[in-house]
Predict the structure.
Amino acid sequence: MKTQLDFVKNLIKEKLSADLNKGALGSPSRMKLKESDIVSDLSVIRDLQASNLNIVSEVKASSWDGVINLNSLSTLKERMQKLGRALSIDCASINVASYAALLGLWERKIDLNIVTKNASGLEQAMNLADSFKVQDGYDFVIAADAPFSLYLNPYLEQYQRVVKLNSESQKAFRFKGGENEKNLPTCWIYPSSSVEHQLRIAKANPERFNLPLQYKEQELTSLADYRHLNEFMKPGDYVFAWQPLSDYLEANMSFLEIVPGTEFEISISLYAHQRFTEENLLLNSFFDLFVAEWSLVEMDRLKAINRVLVNEQIISDFGRGMGVGTVLSQLIFGAFLSQSVGQVLI
């Protein structure tokens, strides 16, 4: 019998493959193409920051093939020595490929403080803003673009969007039944998120998605609401979810059905604090090495997923980041600890 731990471990493996399959770091041309693909969609978001495609030209040719450039490695370590501390990186736990690449850098003795506990999407943006109350913000952030632009907070304005890393799939679910309902359906919306982003696009281009032209809007106030959809949704209502939350809903909430023609690609990008956008040597060397590690993850996915799954904290954080809450995360964490320490989780 499969346990909840097995279920989440499989979701992590599937998410790694999805991140890589929809990645933008395969080659310089691919990166520029993937960036241009999202320009139109991102233009509907207020105050969108342009990406820094100049950084692509700084990536060494061999890095795209997974070769670690020793000059970049020594430069990064030298700049970090002058900085006098580890680089802090807020990487949402559901960004599995990025996390695996960062672990590769950490294994090369690059002093990184990788934080995965800050949920994802809107909650990640909110937690990031709150982090300025106790520290001077993270150095780098890997996050969905929509919350960064839709959640209005002066602290987030201190970050510059560097470049797109990959995409995530989002889709609409409908509460089964209600075909003969005369009242307008309700769309349950997680505000300042990729859901709001998709609906803004739908209003500008109604034919793009298979959604009702008229509906009522109702806000979800927390990711925790996704665990209780059956308590307030009615037949005919709509709700949106992104991977891996959408996988969880599909597997566990039989009263919901996927609405064909509502698929939407969410862009995930690397952000740098403004103190590093002016420090080109550190930023360029970091990104050059990150590209190489991403390529290595893609070349050996089995090694990458084992690297991730032996970390009990990322498994626990993934449960929270996907929106199923701390209760399931605690169950996952407990199940992990009950396994033998030397077991390979794959």
